[in-house]
């Protein structure tokens, strides 16, 4: 793609923020994600309680605290401790159905937002979209859980792996960088799969990489910025009282949902510019539905 095409794509992305109501869609998506995250984490804690590793779920929460604002983590821990005081085995049986349905509703809303980003109509039947949402939820949860697991093992695992596989000491020194890189890679793949399988368009898997990199980068930057803001600048307790932690939680979800949708807008505009270039070479006009046949 030429520099002029890239500039045109970024300019169109900026205009799409208002035309596609990205801010409002991010608010709706954050609502569904909040509904899905607690049942999902409760079910995850129930599963991890069966794994013979000491305080595994506590270590997951510790890793999450590196990415989430402190007020948000207090809300998460408070809700989980309150709910998990009941029988965890019940969540493995009956809770699983609720988790799947609520999580699929979140991904169903995401699929609708992605179709809007790509300017395409979704003529797929309801059951097919809901099945796609369930599959996306399972795949995304698996990849993100793997990323968390890699982050949890920490630096000691590098020394243990080097001893078992007879690797050099350089591997041990590089392991902190390696395990963060692996975690980010799995997160990138999860976001790419959402962009690839979600919208009703045909595209190459590698075409979703620019938006995924943009989105994940925004996640990391926004998480750090929000954490700094809530720690040192904001005083939500003065305004919202006991709701301060939940407001911080919703704010974190809102801006990260916005980053996810913005990455989709970037991919959509890049795909349009690429398709325009292909059709111009063939002296053919470009229409909105041409994205369905994008290579």
Q: How would you describe this structure to a colleague?
A:
- The chain has about 300 residues and is an all-alpha fold.
- The chain has one domain.
- Helix content is about 80%, strand content about 0%.
- It has eleven helices and no strands.
- The chain has helices spanning about 5-20, 20-50, 55-65, 70-85, 90-95, 95-115, 125-165, 170-195, 210-235, 235-240, 245-280.
- Helix 2 packs antiparallel against helix 6 (about 95-115), helix 6 (about 95-115) packs across helix 7 and helix 9 runs antiparallel to helix 11 (about 245-280).
- The longest helix has about 40 residues, at about 125-165.
- The model has no long low-confidence stretch (mean pLDDT about 75).
List the topology elements.
Layout: H1 3-19, H2 22-48, H3 56-64, H4 70-83, H5 88-93, H6 95-117, H7 126-165, H8 169-197, H9 209-233, H10 236-240, H11 244-281
Helix pairs in contact: 1-11, 2-6, 2-11, 3-7, 4-11, 6-7, 6-11, 7-8, 8-9, 9-11
């Amino acid at each position: 793609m030429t520099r002029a095409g890239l500039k045109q794509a970024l300019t169109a992305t900026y205009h799409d923020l208002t035309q596609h109501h990205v801010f409002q869609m991010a608010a709706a998506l954050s609502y569904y994600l909040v509904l899905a995250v607690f049942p999902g984490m409760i079910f995850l804690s129930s599963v991890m309680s069966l794994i013979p590793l000491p305080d595994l779920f506590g270590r997951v929460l510790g890793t999450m605290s590196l990415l989430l604002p402190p007020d948000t983590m207090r809300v998460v821990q408070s809700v989980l401790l309150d709910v998990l005081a009941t029988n965890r085995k019940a969540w493995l049986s009956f809770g699983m159905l609720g988790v799947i349905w609520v999580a699929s509703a979140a991904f169903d809303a995401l699929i609708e937002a992605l179709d809007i980003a790509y300017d395409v109509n979704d003529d797929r039947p309801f059951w097919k979209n809901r099945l796609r949402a369930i599959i996306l939820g399972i795949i995304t949860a698996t990849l993100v859980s793997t990323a968390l697991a890699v982050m949890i093992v920490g630096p000691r695992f590098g020394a243990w792996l080097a001893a078992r596989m007879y690797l050099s000491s350089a591997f041990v020194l590089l392991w902190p960088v390696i395990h963060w890189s692996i975690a980010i890679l799995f997160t990138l793949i999860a976001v790419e799969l959402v962009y690839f399988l979600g919208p009703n368009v045909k595209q190459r898997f590698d075409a979703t990489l620019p938006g995924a990199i943009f989105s994940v980068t925004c996640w990391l930057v926004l998480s750090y910025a929000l954490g700094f803001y809530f720690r040192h600048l904001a005083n939500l307790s003065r305004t919202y009282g006991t709701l301060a932690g939940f407001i911080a939680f919703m704010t974190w979800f809102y801006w990260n949902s916005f980053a996810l949708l913005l990455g989709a807008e970037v991919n959509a505009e890049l795909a349009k510019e690429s398709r325009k270039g292909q059709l111009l070479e063939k002296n053919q006009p470009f229409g909105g539905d041409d994205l369905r046949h994008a290579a």
